[in-house]
Write a structure and sequence with these properties.
By secondary structure, the protein is an alpha+beta fold. It has one domain: outer membrane lipoprotein receptor (LolB), chain A (Clam). It is 22% helix and 45% strand. The chain has 4 helices and 14 strands. The strands form 2 sheets. Strands 6-5-4-3-2-1-14 form a 7-stranded antiparallel β-sheet, covered by helices on one side. A 7-stranded antiparallel β-sheet has the order 7-8-9-10-11-12-13. The longest helix has 19 residues. It is globular and about 55 Å long. InterPro entries: DUF6503 (IPR045444). It comes from Algoriphagus aquimarinus. Pfam families: DUF6503. Keywords: Signal.
């Protein structure tokens, strides 16, 4: 019996040590993922419309499949991005003539919509590096400020982008984010949550997409510019007709 108790005690110590090995930034992000949907993300297929394009998103810890579908002058277009790569079909026929440049552009476009729609899920991917920048305050609310960068291997074509997330100190909800990017000429943006929809246990957020007059500024300046009223509204990020289908059924 004593050996049995010792085994249980040692197992408990192992779990405790594992939990406490996570950094402060990782713990904050863990709570944010849980507050926005938690394990439901892993077991769901999500569909929504964004700017008249239909998206179907599925993502687990090691697999993902992002689909967007729309019609244009060429016909019915379907873009598929998954672990194997990118494929475009038009009216059901695979397009084999896409250049590497356009394959990259389409892949980044599909991935970007999926990334933002599923935030903060994905911030625990192995290619994501998280750093706590301490506590800050916006509009009288306290936030944990988290900086995110990406490994070159596994971080995608946009691995050198930098993101900031303002995560509520009390509710673990992301109310603001900002990021710098280098593709398509580069720039910097800040997003403010404008509306919330909870569907199937997942929190989906719409955003006001803001930009500074000088887009060469570092992303760390965005909070200061926001509070000074020096960011202009560039666009709105609105998800419509959201459905969440559990894959466990």
């Amino acid at each position: 019996m004593r050996l049995q108790y010792l085994f249980v005690f040692l197992c408990g110590l192992t779990v405790f040590a594992s939990c406490n090995s996570r950094t402060e930034a990782e713990k904050i992000v863990d709570k944010a993922i849980e507050a926005h949907g938690g394990d439901i993300y892993n077991n769901s297929k999500v569909e929504f419309d964004f700017r008249k394009i239909h998206y179907t998103i599925y993502k687990t810890a090691d697999r993902f499949e992002y689909i967007r579908e729309f019609s244009d002058s060429t016909g019915n277009v379907k873009d598929l991005l998954n672990n194997e790569g990118f494929v475009r079909t038009v009216n059901g026929a695979k397009i084999d003539t896409l250049s590497e440049e356009w394959t990259g552009k389409y892949s980044r476009s599909v991935n970007s919509v999926a990334y933002f729609a599923f935030l903060p899920y994905g911030l625990n991917d192995p290619s994501v590096f998280k750093t706590s920048l301490g506590e800050t305050e916006i509009n009288g609310e306290k936030y944990d400020l988290i900086k995110v960068t990406f490994a070159e291997e596994g971080g995608g074509d946009d691995f050198d982008d930098v993101f900031l997330y303002w995560i509520g100190a009390d509710d673990s909800i992301i109310d603001f984010m900002a990021y710098s990017y280098h593709t398509d000429g580069g720039g910097v943006r800040m997003r403010e949550v404008s509306a919330v929809q909870e569907v199937g246990g997942i929190r989906f957020q719409n955003y006001l997409n803001l930009k500074p007059a000088d887009e060469s500024l570092p992303v760390e300046k965005m909070q200061e510019l926001y509070e000074a009223g020096e960011l202009e509204l560039l666009s709105e990020i609105n998800l419509e007709n959201i459905t969440v289908k559990s894959l466990n059924k």
